[in-house]
Amino acid sequence: MGGREVLSELLARLAGGIAPSADASVTVLPAPSGARAVVVGGTAWHVVAADVDPGWVAAAVAHDPIAAPLGARFLTALADRVEAEPGVLDVVLVAPSAPAAPGLDLVPAEVDHPRVERALLHRRDVRVWSTPHGAGLLTIGRGVAGRWETSLEVDPAARGRGLGTALAAAAPALVPDGAPLWAQVAPANTASLRAFLAVGYRPVCAEVLFGP
Fold first, then answer.
1. C-alpha dist (Å) from residue 157 to 128, 134, 153
2. pTM for this structure?
3. pLDDT in tens, 181-210
4. Which residues pair with 210 in a beta bridge?
5. Which residues contact 19 (CB under 8 A, 6 or more apart)?
6. Which of 89, 122, 179, 209 is deepest in the core (most CB within 10 A)?
7. What helix, strand, coil percent values describe the chain, rounded to 5?
């Protein structure tokens, strides 16, 4: 079974509310599509999806398998192994069930924006919408292991009015075939994190991606 399929199974279980056992396990899987490597962790479990020796991973995290896999020392060592820079540590959330319609006035957009550039770098089949006056921007695309991922941006002049929350709420209705929708949010981005949590996105794990 390929790496994409293996990691997809874990993600499907997480989306369905089923997490691995909290047994301090560190599982090694092949690198998935969409990243050179990814480290995923939850409550006393971790998955290292990378084309590396499982024995090396076990030895590297043996001193603290609960904390080490997402710690700076291991991530740096893994970066050297896979020859790719690690991204930031993200909270990973799954959207609630999709409504029948977005509930927000959105139009397909083609814009030159850093948020879109980042989506195009890390995802495929990227689709972009904006609010009619361009104050809000929403992207959806296939990211790591083929999952549908969303990101949003609110113009600084329009912040503090609930638009980010409205965009987060609208996103699930735009995913083809009602597939699970994922959001990756840096913990320091508290405004974005609050927006997703406010409309029912559920935190299921943390992760660090290594390169597109």
1. 20, 11, 12
2. 0.90
3. 999 999 999 999 999 999 999 999 999 999
4. 37, 86
5. 13, 42, 43, 45, 204, 205
6. 209
7. 35, 30, 35
